[in-house]
Model the fold of this input.
Amino acid sequence: MKKRRQLSIALFLLAIVPVILVFAVPLFSEEKNDSLVLVASSFKYSGEEGVFKLNTTIKNVSSREIEGPGLIVTIYGQEDKLLVQRSFKARRVSLLPGEETEVAATIYVDRPVFDFRLTVTEGLGGG
Done:
């Protein structure tokens, strides 16, 4: 009787664990933006002035119009410490499929920059 109960529990777990994983994995994965891609970027950082300047070009690689394209810039200091995170709107308010736009950013940083990350995004509307 005890072995039968253990076997039932084992079979239940074998059936339920994959179902749980199917729903749990998307909760812990980063959201991907397959509509916009970063096609070019250049930056200049002046530690003396505390100024980080960035110029990028993003492109709509989807088959639909993208409203509010933009860029999120995340800057890290020593030991991966988050220093600043800002979002910047693109020069164009929408992009048709295949179109590109530029995003320029100037950020004042009061501590040395060790790393930065760029994330393309959509939906940055407003005035």
Remarks:
- The chain has one helix and eight strands.
- Strands lie at 36-46, 51-60, 66-67, 70-76, 82-89, 94-95, 100-108, 115-121.
